[in-house]
Design brief:
Length: 115
């Protein structure tokens, strides 16, 4: 992977991280939370829905932050299954993917067959 391609992927990941930060700020405002996440207002049904969204968003943020560190590693962008390069287009769409399209399709078809 070229330095330019890696830079483009880093830009995609950093943009998503910024979007998540903005969404979390809106989440705090909608849930009556202060900057420390302390709840001031309770709305049980919506709170459960928002908590699920926040959990998923926090998990995604952690994935992206780990990915930024992995981008510096020599084997970034290499399929963990076959060892071939993961296409740049796939990495742009799914930056945290560990598998090329061929191997992921193979893994998914094996899961479908098992069901």
């Amino acid at each position: 992977m070229t330095a330019e391609q890696l830079s483009r992927l880093r830009e995609i990941v950093e943009t998503e991280i910024q979007d998540i930060h903005a969404a979390l700020e809106q989440w705090r405002a909608c849930n009556g939370l202060d900057d420390n996440g302390v709840q001031r207002v309770q709305e049980t049904a919506m709170r459960v829905l928002h908590q699920d969204w926040k959990h998923n968003t926090d998990r995604r943020m952690m994935e992206l932050l780990r990915l930024l560190g992995k981008m510096e590693e020599e084997d970034f962008g290499i399929c963990q299954e076959c060892g071939e390069d993961i296409s740049l287009r796939r990495l742009e769409l799914l930056p945290t993917t560990a598998y090329c399209t061929r191997c992921m399709t193979h893994k998914e078809s094996g899961l479908v067959a098992a069901v």
